[in-house]
Design a protein that fits this description.
The protein is an alpha/beta fold. It has 10 helices and 12 strands. It has 2 domains: 66 residues, no CATH class; 186 residues, 3-Layer(aba) Sandwich (Rossmann fold). The chain is 31% helix and 25% strand. Helix 8 links the parallel strand 9 and strand 10. The longest helix has 18 residues. The termini are far apart.
């Protein structure tokens, strides 16, 4: 087929294209090598004069230009974590990035939109959770992951792409984000992945979810003293809660120490991100669940944030 760059792409170049469908609403167009202008790479035609690929949705007027689908930093970082990505997994991450950017135009999902930053500060940062798991835990067919305050799907969706045997649950209270997550799970074809809408204070008391998850994760949601009350009730005894944090977290840990003990947690570990990975100012806080959470926790919605234990 022939694809012509639209006005947003700053030109009127007419080039025969090969179309690859990323999802129901997103396509990527590549120039046929024999027809590409001299000196222009066949894998990424310069339609927007900035090395972009041509992406459009099913509406004929909705033409957009985006960055080329490079995932080198993600692939290298995942390999350093001990989880080299297959071509199929890389393709899922490309689709994820495309859907994130399309939806972010009308739904506030993230302030990070540049392709390279999405790779490192969203995808690879999410995969650092793997540092908190041993090989047996990561490979277990019984692994269930709950992501509290999932937002745009970080970190659970990247973890599910890398650990396809795991079962994942995305907990989010905001309706617009819930709609994106349900769309994303469908587009990526992620089996055994559910989206739960509600507040952690409410769902953490329900039998289907209480102490049902060997791994509970949360990223950029709340201070640790609040976060443990929201997350540890979901964590099964013997399982772990992993929080992704940034910067100096010494005081945060001190303020959360009493709450961790009250809620059944212990054996806190701080796992620093290796210097060889981008975003090494971040760390993981891993807490082992050693006893059941008392029945009267979590407290009613809003109280853990207003009055941390």
């Amino acid at each position: 087929m022939a694809a012509q760059s639209g006005p947003e792409c700053g030109g009127s170049l007419l080039i025969p294209m090969r179309v690859r469908v990323l999802s129901r609403s997103a396509f990527v167009c590549y120039p046929l090598e024999r027809d590409a202008p001299r000196g222009m790479p066949s894998s990424s035609i310069n339609l927007d004069r900035q090395g972009g690929i041509y992406i459009t949705n099913q509406h004929p007027q909705a033409h957009r230009c985006y960055d080329s689908p490079v995932v080198e930093q993600l692939a290298a970082g995942a390999a350093r974590l001990g989880y080299p990505l297959t071509s199929a997994q890389l393709s899922l991450f490309e689709t994820y990035r495309t859907e994130l950017r399309l939806w972010n135009e009308h739904t506030n999902l993230t302030s990070i939109t540049e392709a390279a930053e999405v790779e490192t500060r969203h995808f690879l940062d999410s995969l650092t959770v793997l540092l908190a798991l041993d090989a047996g835990e990561a490979a277990s067919p019984c692994l269930r992951i709950l992501d509290v305050g999932s937002g745009a799907g970080f970190p659970c969706v990247p973890l599910k792409i890398v650990l396809p045997q795991a079962r994942g649950s995305l907990l989010e209270a905001t309706g617009k984000k819930v709609r994106f997550l349900r769309h994303l799970v469908t587009v990526l074809g992620l089996a055994d992945m559910e989206v739960l809408q509600g507040r952690a204070e409410d769902l953490g008391r329900l039998p289907p979810h209480r102490e049902a998850f060997p791994l509970v994760v949360s990223r950029a949601v709340a201070p640790l003293a609040t976060l443990v009350e929201l997350c540890l009730p979901f964590c099964s005894v013997g399982g772990s809660f992993v929080a992704l944090k940034k910067g100096d977290i010494t005081r945060e840990i001190e303020e959360a120490s009493a709450a961790i003990g009250i809620l059944g947690g212990s054996n806190l570990r701080i796992i620093n991100i290796p210097l060889s990975l981008p975003g090494n100012d971040r760390c993981l806080i891993s807490i082992r669940k050693v006893a059941p959470t008392p029945d009267h926790y979590p407290r009613r919605p809003g109280v853990p944030a207003k009055r941390p234990l």
